[in-house]
Design brief:
By secondary structure, this protein is α/β, with parallel strands linked by helices. It has 14 helices and five strands. The chain has one domain: SGNH hydrolase (Rossmann fold, 3-Layer(aba) Sandwich), CATH 3.40.50.1110.
Length: 226
């Protein structure tokens, strides 16, 4: 019965239940958020868009540090975790490295990528058990970027598996991106002009609203009558 209750609670969170982040912002607490990942984080407009949305709903209460790095993968994430994440004492950490773990020249098997992700999760929580960790599955690559990542689906599924097993929040952007790619490839190419990095318009249309929904900001605004 206890397990069933836990799974039900996790399902609610994935449906837009307020996260610790939103609950703390609602109560007036300052929150430091770190985004940690590849160029899909380091150079991506969604980070600034998320900062703007947080400022709109909770003015002056949330601050994002973008600690991602272009071209990096989870081994780099493990090696740089202390000074880029833990030492900054974040309240919430977003993590995504799967798209570059799948990059063939890095020769990272799925089980190694899994160990790296779990290493990061464990060390963040060891430093602060109250830190909220959110992991993300990003967009499908196309063209030459997909050719260099032929097993991308397996790496993305590993993130889903860890989220389920550890009952942490997963924000899975892949289904919406895949639907756009399959039904309207011209729009996908407009949103992801180089085949791997969503531009400002793509982030605004797909990534940022999915994050806002998933962390529970819209749920909170509905509950507040706004």
């Amino acid at each position: 019965m206890l397990l069933a209750c836990c799974l039900f609670s996790a399902a609610l969170c994935h449906a837009g239940e307020k996260t610790k982040l939103v609950a703390n912002l609602k109560s007036g607490k300052q929150q430091l958020i770190i985004t940690y990942g590849t160029s899909l984080t380091a150079g991506s407009p969604w980070v600034q868009q998320l900062q703007q949305e947080l400022n709109r709903y909770y003015p002056g209460k949330a601050y994002i540090i973008n600690s991602g790095s272009r071209g990096m993968w989870s081994k780099w994430g493990v090696d740089n975790l202390d000074h880029r994440v833990i030492d900054k004492k974040p309240d919430t950490v977003f993590i995504e490295f799967a798209i570059n773990d799948a990059y063939q020249p890095y020769k990272t098997p799925v089980d190694h990528a899994r160990n790296n992700l779990e290493n990061m999760i464990d060390r963040i929580l060891a430093a602060n058990a109250n830190c909220e960790i959110i992991i993300m599955v990003m967009n499908p690559p196309t063209g030459v970027y997909l050719e260099r990542r032929p097993k991308i689906e397996a790496f993305y599924q590993m993130y889903r598996d860890i989220a389920k097993e550890r009952e942490i929040l997963l924000i899975d952007h892949y289904p919406k991106w895949k639907k756009i790619l399959d039904t309207n490839p011209d729009m996908f190419n407009k949103y992801v002009p180089d085949g791997i990095h969503p531009g400002p318009e793509g982030c605004k249309a797909v990534i940022t609203p999915e994050i806002i929904e998933s962390i529970g900001i819209r749920t909170e605004q509905k509950d507040s009558g706004n």
